Amino acid sequence: MTEFWLISAPGEKTCQQTWDKMMLATTRTNNLSTNHKFNIPDLKVGTLDVLVGLSDELAKLDSFVESVVKKVAQYMADVLEDSRDKVQENLLANGVDLVTYITRFQWDMAKYPIKQSLKNISEIVSKQVTQIDNDLKARASAYNNLKGNLQNLERKNAGSLLTRSLADIVKKEDFVLDSEYLITMLVVVPKTNYADWQKTYETLSEMVVPRSTNLLFEDHESGLFSVTLFRKAIDDFRLKARENKFMVRDFQYNEEEMKADKEEMTRLSTDKKKQFGPLVRWLKVNFSEAFIAWIHIKALRVFVESVLRYGLPVNFQAMLLQPNKKNMKKLREVLYDLYKHLDSSAASIIDQSAMDIPGLNLSQQEYYPYVYYKIDCNLLDFK
Question: Cis omega before residue 313 (within 30°)?
């Protein structure tokens, strides 16, 4: 299970007692969840007005930061293309896997100094993650353009003989070049019609050079034949060929153009390889930064919500539960029984997530008698 429940309850005589009680209810006898203390430092409380406003702002910031974390993770999966199993090992926070980071969470004092007000800390996160989001857009756009152009060229060099590029199939000696009167044309003939082609090509129009056809290339459906004729017969030959299910390709042998195409392909391929390494490194670093910021936002939310609900002085225990998937419903019931005394109004709305009560942000978030936020580490949506 990569889902965690970050909850808090007020300190009994001590916060340790709150922790022991919860442990007793959820793990000692029935193994409903694996639990960890979640350490939140002594943050500056500020005024009630500020806390109420901040509660809404943090909810929005939480959604935004989560969306950026998911975008970076998903783009990492897109960039790593064929090695998607490697994605997970690149999605680390502070050099460790996400579960380890969350369960051993320590506030980063250097990035988010606790001497600052809560509002300032949330603004530091907001600026930092907005920057990551903007950088991701720019980098993704540049890399996707490159990848798209390369794929278009690769597509040109694959597929059916009716549409694919012929540059890597034909050679100079296959053509009559620099003749005022003669021209070599390329014709796609279905395999089932080879015999018809050999019988009829010389008489499809006037002025076809006898015995001038050669099979240059074939795929599983058709073959590419060359045929030489007089220039003035081109239109008539093209029309008669089509009536007989032979398709004339528009192709002029031009060495310069073909060389330019090959060079463009090589250049794009080299550029893509050059950009790949630095891009993956950037994604790794910034995934870690965004994920760490996200968990700090969760910590801020628990702090603000706990002070608003349980009052001052600050006295609550934040706890991280990793539910046992089979027992999630049971765990909810046990937590409800444990904490229902905290809020009588919660009794009637324990599972109605869309109830709208003024001052409570219930439409986006289930409401329970204890402070609760979900953290889901399953960030990838593999198609």
Answer: yes
